[in-house]
Amino acid sequence: MRAKLTYFTLAAVLVVYFALVGTRGIWLIEDGRPVTVAFGVAVLVLPLLGLWFLWQTTSFARNANRLAKELEAEGGLPVDELERTPSGRVVRDSADAVFARRRAETEAAPDDWRSWFRLAIAYFDARDTPRARKAMQRAIALHDGKPVRA
């Protein structure tokens, strides 16, 4: 719950920031001189990109949580079987062993969103965030019946 509160607080702060930057861009455009109009347009692009990125990130998190709840209801969430250091960090060899099993499971059932979801968790535990995100995107696409990009 604390993570959600932090996320929504930071998202709200970003939206306020984007609004402030956007108004500055409009003021520059209203000035009417070619240089300020060009700067105003450039300044307006930044909040639009930021809002798009914020929307994509929020949608991704919402969809991943939806899949996690469904998998939990089925009893298919992966069990945390990773060895940890005394500080709580995952032992790399342990994460690699779990990852190998998850990869084999996904290769055996490449059209099953559940295996891709568990593979995404294994990638995350192995500290490979970009691949974890791609695997989760694939799980979401498979679950929703959308075309999957290779």
- State the shape: elongated
> What is the end-to-end distance?
34 Å
Question: How much β-strand is present in the residues?
Answer: under 5%
Question: What is the radius of gyration computed over CA atoms, rounded to a whole number of angstroms?
Answer: 21 Å
Order of helices and strands: HHHHH
* Helical content (DSSP H or I, runs of 4+): over 70%
Can you tell me the residue ranges where pLDDT is under 50 for at least 5 consecutive residues? none
Structural class determined from secondary elements = mainly alpha
Arithmetic mean pLDDT? 91
Largest sheet: none
Number of DSSP strands?
0
Alpha plus pi helix count? 5
Structural key phrases:
150 residues; mainly alpha; 5 helices; 0% strand
Describe the structure.
The chain has helices spanning 2-31, 34-74, 92-108, 113-125, 129-144. It has 150 residues and is an all-alpha fold. Helix 3 runs antiparallel to helix 4 (113-125). The chain is elongated.
Write the layout of secondary structure elements.
Blueprint (H helix, E strand, L loop, with lengths): L1 H30 L2 H41 L17 H17 L4 H13 L3 H16 L6
Helix pairs in contact: 1-2, 2-5, 3-4, 4-5
Quick recap of the structure?
The chain has helices at residues 2-31, 34-74, 92-108, 113-125, 129-144. The chain has 150 residues and is mainly α. The protein is elongated, with a radius of gyration of 21 Å.
